[in-house]
Every structure is written in C-alpha cells, then in structure tokens.
Amino acid sequence: MNSHKNVLKLLGCCLETEIPMLVFEFAVGGCLSDHIYENPILSWESRLRIATEIADAVAYLHYGTSKPIIHRDIKSTNIFLDQHYVAKLFKFRLSISIPLGQTHVDGNLSSWYIGSIAPESNGTWRFTEKSDVYSFGLVLSFILADDNEEDIRVYLRANIVKGNTQQLMACAQLAIRCVKVNPEERPSMIEAANELRRISRLRIATEIADAVAYLHNGTSKPIIHRDIKSTNIFLDDHYVAKLFDFELSILIPLGQTQVEADVAGTHAFIAPEILHTSRYTEKSDVYSFGMVLFEILTRKRASDLLKKFYNVQALDKIEKNKRLYLEATL
C-alpha cells in the first residue's frame, strides 16, 4: 500500500518520544477541502485529474493487495496534495481488510466518528468495497462543485463557456451511480477509475480539436498543420493538451480552398486524397485528428486502424511512396 503514488507514504515511526508518532511524507499542498474553497478556484483539468488519482488509490486498496482493504473514511479532508497537486489518500486508522474467501467484513465505528457511511453499513457495520465507492461518490460530487450555491453557479457557468459541459455531466452521472442506495448498482472502483480516464481522454481530444479549429478559422488565412499526431501533442503539468511542431504547416491563400504541396507528415495520419493529389485542405487535418481521436479512445496505434480497414499492401505502398519522394528530393 505504501508504494502507490497516490497514497501518502509512511516514512517511519518515533518510539522514543513520550507519545509514539508515525512520520509521513510532507504534503505541502495541504488537504483537498482547502483547495476546493480557495480562490482562484481549482481548474476543471486539475479537479478531473485529482478525482482520477483518488479513484486509482482506492481501486488499489480494493484489488492491489492480497486482501481487499476498506478505507472507511474517504473524505476531502483525508486527501492531501503535494507540491505538484498530486492527490494522496491519507488516514488509514479506520481501515480494515476483508478476510480471504469473504465478501464483507463486520467492524464497528467509534461513536466520535464524523463521516459519511454508506446506507447499508449504517447500523449494520457491515462493510464491502461498495461502502468505499459510496464515500468516493460523495467526494467526487464535492470535487465537481462545493456546497456554496453561488460558487456552484460561477463554476458551472465558467466551464460551460469553456466547453466542458459534457465532461461535467459525465462526472456528475458517475457520482450519482456511486451513491446509489443499492450497493449492487454502484460501479467498482476500477470501473469508476476507468470512466474518469475516459472522460479525461475526451477532454484532451476536445482541447486538440479546439487548437486545430483555431488554426483553420482563427486567423486571416487558414493554417494547415499537416502533421497532427499523438507525438506532436504535449501535456502540461495540469494535463492540458498543447499542439506542437508546425514545421510542415502551410497557409491556404486568400480566396482559395486548397493548397498544393509535397506529400509530408506521418503515413498513418496522412489523408488518403493527399497521396493522389498533393492538395491540402482543412479536411486533411480533420482526417489526421480523427486518427488521433482513435488512438485516444482505444489506446491503440493509428497504424492498427489502417491494418484493420486496409491491407498490409496499402501500408507498404504508402511507405514506398514516401521513400520514393525522399529519394527524389535528395
């Protein structure tokens, strides 16, 4: 458990003091609840990443050890952030393991406990992985927007303007699933983590699409990138997508709908019409973006898609044309 990057690491203990102490890594960013209420408000990108990291940590507790560990106290004040805003799950004093061969564990909570208990555990003190899923759902709803009604309005309005509506709705739907009264209707933490990753990938795809749309429509002359591919897209420390490498970019002249240029780019991302006509339009970039989108959603290489819909000879022909072109220009 101590090895997971999203769990606050136990460094050691002090037994020589009057009161024995545990020593944990220092989370300089403080707890998550402080940042939710702070101004400037945490960006949507940061919130989505933090939610995914928490889901990963809880999924690791449930499935990454010999016995499933139930945290039993997942809440925003028990989640800390390091200097890079990486989420760290903390406070395992209430955690218990499900015995081998069992699907649940019985364990009372102290009378002083202040937290959100899943409905099926309240009074019965019977805990399963779905008990943690319920608590995570409450944290996720807190991450989406805090309890302040005016802050919620401002936050939602800002993200609607930014085009994050679909991602917000997808996260809200996941949070609702996590807090279902019937535990059988809740997703597992692995399913929740995978869903958050899917939402994150869609966010990145949206940012790339916005960047390409700006090249095509945001300048006096449309700019054709000509080399849109996953290796030309970078992520900053908040996982915001950045389109890069404009070495092959060209402008479409005023009054024209296309521009002729030598075939260039990466074969799996080159639109088919380019190989025959050498004429570039905005739709050439759209094809390349589509291949990137395929990679984002399936986590497979664009060349795999070509192999599926075309045959190996088609790829060989592309490579041959590319090689002949390079030889002719030497």
From TrEMBL:
Keyword field: ATP-binding, Magnesium, Metal-binding, Nucleotide-binding
Keyword Nucleotide-binding attached: yes
InterPro entries hit by this protein: Kinase-like_dom_sf, Prot_kinase_dom, Ser-Thr/Tyr_kinase_cat_dom, Ser/Thr_kinase_AS, WAK-like
One GO BP annotation of this record: cell surface receptor signaling pathway
Protein kinase domain segment(s): 1-330
Residue numbers annotated as active site: 227 (proton acceptor)
CC terms in the record's Gene Ontology section: plasma membrane
Residue sites binding Mg(2+) per the record: 232, 245
SUPFAM superfamilies the record matches: Protein kinase-like (PK-like) (SSF56112)
Keyword Flavoprotein annotated: no
Gene3D superfamilies: Transferase(Phosphotransferase) domain 1
GO MF annotations, alphabetized: ATP binding; metal ion binding; protein serine/threonine kinase activity
PROSITE patterns linked: PROTEIN_KINASE_DOM (PS50011), PROTEIN_KINASE_ST (PS00108)
Protein name according to UniProt: Protein kinase domain-containing protein
Protein's organism: Tetracentron sinense (Spur-leaf)
Lineage: Eukaryota, Viridiplantae, Streptophyta, Embryophyta, Tracheophyta
